[in-house]
Write a structure and sequence with these properties.
The protein is α+β, with helices and mostly antiparallel strands and 202 residues long. The chain contains six helices and five strands, in the order H-E-E-E-H-E-E-H-H-H-H. Catalyzes the cleavage of glutathione into 5-oxo-L-proline and a Cys-Gly dipeptide. Acts specifically on glutathione, but not on other gamma-glutamyl peptides.
């Protein structure tokens, strides 16, 4: 099923978030479910020169890379038909025009086993994108995140909030890529920890 089909044929639309959408959707939704999609791994391989960085120091944000053995945890939001158009318009600016993402339809599996799987719209940035940065070591990615800030805030906040979501909502999941970059970042700062007030001075 193509993205436009899932939008036009349904009375409600599910949108899957795996980056900043897990803590900051900023669109109207009816309910949310924590869960995962199969066949993709989350990686800090996409550049961001607006929300979490700028032209001189692009930040690093996550995208999805196809991997049949992997799964990615996040949140699916149900958007009713009455809010569908405005929500998609908002996301098309946030994710497509400014973020460089395209859309795909994926199968979402809720964490609660009693709930059945569902189709969800997801935004993915590919290597074809001009601000795509690609692979780098955990240390290199952490160093880039440590010095990047954009219109939405510091790149550090993005990383820490995503790690916090995983620990609180999916404590049984070991996201090695995410947590390894977080560990490398914490070594950059004195004391090995960053508070919200410290973020403001970065």
């Amino acid at each position: 099923m193509k993205p436009r089909d899932i939008v036009h044929e349904k009375n409600s639309l599910w949108i899957f978030g795996y980056g900043s959408l897990v803590w900051k959707p900023d669109f109207s939704y009816k309910r949310r479910k924590v869960g995962y999609i199969k066949g993709y791994k989350r990686r800090f391989w996409h550049g961001d020169d607006f929300h979490r960085g700028d032209k001189e120091k692009p930040g690093r944000v996550v995208t999805l890379i196809e991997d049949q053995e992997a799964c990615t945890w996040g949140v699916a939001y149900e958007v009713t038909k009455s809010h569908m158009e405005e929500s998609l318009q908002y996301l098309n600016v946030r994710e497509v025009l400014l973020g460089g993402y395209t859309t795909e339809v994926v199968e979402f599996l809720p964490k609660e086993k009693s709930h059945s799987s569902l189709l969800a719209l997801v935004y993915i940035a590919t290597s074809d994108n001009p601000i795509y940065l690609g692979p780098a070591s955990d240390v290199e990615i952490a160093a880039q995140i440590a010095v990047s800030r954009g219109k939405t805030g510091h790149n550090v906040e993005y990383l820490l909030r995503l790690a916090e979501f995983m620990r609180l909502s999916c404590p049984e999941v070991e996201d090695e890529h995410l947590f390894s970059i977080e560990a490398a970042l914490l070594k950059i700062f004195p004391g090995g920890e960053i508070t919200p007030s410290a973020l403001k001075s970065l």
